[in-house]
Amino acid sequence: MQRESQDEQEAVQKRTFTKWINSHLAKHKPPLEVNDLFEDIKDGVKLLALLEVLSGQRLPCEQGRQLKRIHWVSNIGTALKFLEGRKSVYRGSPIKLVNIHATDIADGRPSIVLGLIWTVILYFQIEELTSNLPALQALSNSNSSVESIASSETGSPPMKRKVVNKFQGNAKKALLRWVQCTAAKHHGIEVKDFGPSWRDGVAFQSVVHAIRPDLVDMEAVRRRSNRENLEEAFSLAENELGIPRLLDPEDVDVDKPDEKSIMTYVAQFLKHYPNPHHSETDGHCMCFCHPHFPLKSASVSSFTENNQIELKVFLDQLERDVLRAQGAEGNLTDKYQAFKSFRVQYEMKKKQTDPLLQPVHRDGKLSVDQALVKQAWDRVSARLLDWHIHLDKSLPGPLGVIGAWLHRAEMALREDIPIQHAHDETANVLHRKLEQHKVT
């Protein structure tokens, strides 16, 4: 009986992961498609194509109709080496693949293939989409990493050698809290996991409703059967929201729905979630916002001790991550990409919290809590500026000189120039600064 359950979960994962892969390979030039995951991954060609689409980088690949096993192993080795060389954009920690070998993938070993694809999904989708949630920042510690550890455990089918991810726990909690606090709690739905809680389809419907309330009648949902709710939720998500249909009703309407498959599917909704909501986490509210949509409003009076703690946790972690990423090895392109990701994260959070830093006293002074947070923002800003200057100076040849010159120009433009009563004195100051910059 247990073996049948493992086989069923393996089959569901295989279908879900195949659909997820194909949703990305459709963007490849030329488009590619996986039909049988365990067979089509053996030569490593489509695996490398998937990583190219996800990373935006070109990877060396042995191709041709007469590829031999030695070429297969070479391609898969390239993919594994690429993954192990990647660092989390937000934590700077590398992916570590243990007991996932190129020969296992070339043999098409189901448990190892599924473990590898799950690691790719965790890193490129679930981490990427949950890393902007404050809940994840609070849950993470400075040593978090995506670390795949193959062991002899058999408690989590269908993996014969279980793939455990240190990072997965934090990402899973962040994703689950997002569901609980942006969709489920508004309809009195209890979502405790990524398994049985989703069987009746109501949780999926509530997530669709959170994005497009006009699409779902939650009262009607409660009267429908499991299969009807699941079918409608998956169809609405695909047709109205453009979310690839990775699951079918029969995959979920079972005693033990597969957790990894449901997490893979649900994480896609984060890209489409437009409105800020609040969640209760550890006794206080945390704001869950889609990374591309800033807070619409925030009152100064809401700047409580809890807000300050959340921001301090976020900023302290961000500063550590910036320092670690700045000192990490890698080519200049990767470093610029990492810098850009941190900069975007910084700007989004800054825009969300700026209203909270408006003076609360009549004399225009900040409160103690506000002043502490402002100092933390200034530290992170200075770190990012130093990193940017260092990267621009590292450009080859004359580009590095030009980068340094542009930064000096930006610094000059940021300087405060006191306006004199005699306008000609102010003009003279500006003229001297301009001439000084021309000389440098």
Automatic annotation (TrEMBL):
InterPro entries: Actinin_actin-bd_CS (IPR001589), CH_dom (IPR001715), CH_dom_sf (IPR036872), CH_SYNE1_rpt1 (IPR047290), CH_SYNE1_rpt2 (IPR047291), LINC-complex_assoc (IPR052403)
UniProt KW keywords: Actin-binding, Coiled coil, Cytoplasm, Cytoskeleton, Membrane, Nucleus, Repeat, Transmembrane, Transmembrane helix
GO BP terms: nuclear migration
Family stated for the protein in its record: Belongs to the nesprin family.
Organism expressing this protein natively: Seriola lalandi dorsalis
Residue ranges occupied by any Calponin-homology (CH) domain in the UniProt entry: 11-125, 169-274
GO molecular function, a single term: actin filament binding
Compartments where found: Cytoplasm, Cytoskeleton; Cytoplasm, Myofibril, Sarcomere; Nucleus membrane
Official protein name in the record: Calponin-homology (CH) domain-containing protein
GO cellular component: cytoskeleton; meiotic nuclear membrane microtubule tethering complex; nuclear outer membrane; sarcomere
Chief localization: cytoplasm
Transmembrane parts of this sequence: none
Domain of life: Eukaryota
Keyword Cytoplasm: yes
